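Hi there,

I know you've been waiting on this one. I reran it after we fixed the sequence typo, so this is the corrected version. Both the input and the resulting structure follow.
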Amino acid sequence: MAAFRLTTIKWVYLIVALFVAIILSLVFLFQFQANAFGAIRFYIGGEGLWAKAQKDAVRNLEHYALSHDEADFQAYERQIRVPLGDRQARLELQKPHPDLDVVRAGYLQGRNHPVDIDYAIPFFLRFQHTEHISHVIKHWEEADRLIAVLNKAAMRFHEEVRAGRATPETTRSFLAEMEDIDRRLAVEEDLFSSTLAEASRWAHDVFRNFTYVIVLLFVAFGLGLSRPIITYLRATERALSASEEQFRSIFEQVGDIIYTVEPDGTFSAISPSCERMLGWKPSEWLGRPFSLVVHPDDLPLMQALFVKAQAGEPPPVFQVRVLTKTGGYVESEIAMNLLRRGNSFVSLGVMRDITERNRAEMALRESRDLLLSVVEHVPARIFWKDRELRYLGCNTRFAQDAGYASPDELIGKTDFEMGWKDQAELYRADDMATMASGQPKLDYEEPQTTPDGKTIWLRTSKVPLQDASQQVIGLLGLYQDITDQKQADEAVKKSEARYRSYIEVTGQLAWTTDADGAVVEDIPAWRAFTGQSEEQVKGWGWTEAVHPDDRERAAQAWREAVARKGAYEVEYRMRRHDGMTAFTVIFSRAAYRSSMRQAAYTNGSAPRSTSPS
């Protein structure tokens, strides 16, 4: 028998080793395949970023050639950094001992995702000399060469523009050169994409065929082992069925207490786990009555269940307190079954310590009660619905808004049964859209009709509720009544409208800035005086109408007035819309609105004299 067991164990080890080898091989193969396809995805995506940046760079150069605006050339420099970054990475990878930090920096400059870079680097190093990948790199190198030509031409033209040497003829020549380079780059981009796609198909075929080979090898090996394994497993099954030792092993190692009670109520068998759970050795209770170990208050329940089981009623799982050796009691759960022995019954039971489970359940109840308390006392209305938009619960504030005394009265109802039934279709459509999107909808305003027929305004947020499998099962919403705030805002708008009317009638200058002093609204009177456009006035653009010698002094005085929220009084020269220069005295007093973090200043201008600018 010992020799037989040893042989069986060897076969079991062999089976385990086989499955471990299969799993590890497949994991390695799938990981390698996933990394390779991740790298190919990286280069496909990178080519798209490369091509877009190249096209944007050429377009910005075309704008620069026509406008000579430095902003267009700076935009070109930002876009051309993408292909230049990829070129840096490629050149470093082609070195015998590449610096991977330089490679990573280049790919990041090329706007590639940081995670995918970890796949791209080893793929390039392993396969750069293979037939398919080398063709891809060849087109990459040619494209980089054309980018270098383009960049050199751009820098040359930029120098000509800065030096004032750019002529219409040089501009046309530069645009023609760019068009030719762009056309050749488009060809290389197409070739890069097609060869990369061919390489991807090649890699897919290689990995697929290799997978087939691995699977066939393991199948053949498994089939070869199946016959002797089945033979030994059958022999093992017969041996186990005849071996009481196996049952004893389970009986001794189980964590719960397994016991049998004779018809006279005494223990006939107790598993060793009794000592671990209760402190009693099994021998201390064998032959003793079961009633001595059960709490006196729980004994009637157990006896009643035993009588019902004898009458043929299946006994349920029940809870009793069991005596420990230290004199305390352990909360336990017992599953009992009766085994007929002649004209009597033997009770077979499994006893489990549920002390920790009860503590966890108590903690869960306390946590739930705490959550309900928070929901009830938070200064907002809270509700939740199922997928059919029936109310599952809410807090008292929400129930009262709906015209009910308590949250329980709303359960199962819909918005058509609430005080706001006139807006029910609007609310339900919004709820369905939120659940369909799977995304929260936060802090938006909507009207609501109260039970007494009044219209109020709410600031509402809604969040889809999901189960463990991320499926949307309902909706959680909360809102606050912002009617007073809306009325206050409306009053402010009316006041501002009256104020602006006053300004327009009296001819005064007024502007509104943010907390840092930058103009955020139009100043029609200023524009009429200076000839500036609305966009030119905003921010700090209004200072462009101030005489260059007075500009910094006027702006600094304005910043200081904003900082101290005080008066702004300064004299400076301004350029009028007709090109004349006006000496102007500006005096203002700030009205600071903290809720919008804006400083509003009213300014009056008084020309003192004029002279040609």
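Quick highlight: The chain is about 55% helix and 20% strand.

Best,
R. S.
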